[in-house]
Amino acid sequence: EELKEIDGLGEKSAEAIATFFTSEENINLIDRLKEYGVNTESKQHDKTQSLQGKKFVFTGSLSLPRSDAGDLVKEHGGMVTSSVSKNVDYVVAGKKPGSKYEKAKKQGVSIIKEDEFLYMTKKKEKK
User: Fold this and answer.
1) pTM tops 0.85
2) What CATH number does the domain located at 55-120 have?
3) Residue extents of the structural domains in the chain
4) Helix ranges, the chain (H)
5) What pLDDT, in 10s, does the model give residues 89-102?
6) Is 110:90 a contact under the CB 8 Å cutoff?
7) How many CB atoms lie within 10 A of CB 122?
8) Is 91 helix (H, G, I), strand (E, B) or coil?
């Protein structure tokens, strides 16, 4: 059930993953890989997960490349999506925001400025 909550992962994919990890044959394979030194532990990030579970959309011109802004979101536990929907938590508006800004206003999605976003990721001090 938890897998179905992952953004972008469909029901069939979630079921396939669950089936894989509950198969006796695959459990044995994973155990053998561990014996050969394969590290199966998740790498922990030093960053705080301050944006855990939050979804972001970017619109307009930002002071940093969008890929860097997206990386910041992911480093702090959040997700980036390209379109506005009621499932989005924040639309980050840079200079000259486009249609995503208007759509966010209509749908009641929280719109924040880039400075606020950078503060959330501790890349900038609050004034």
Assistant:
1) no
2) 3.40.50.10190
3) 3-35, 55-120
4) 11-22, 24-35, 66-75, 99-107, 114-120
5) 999 999 999 899 99
6) yes
7) 12
8) strand
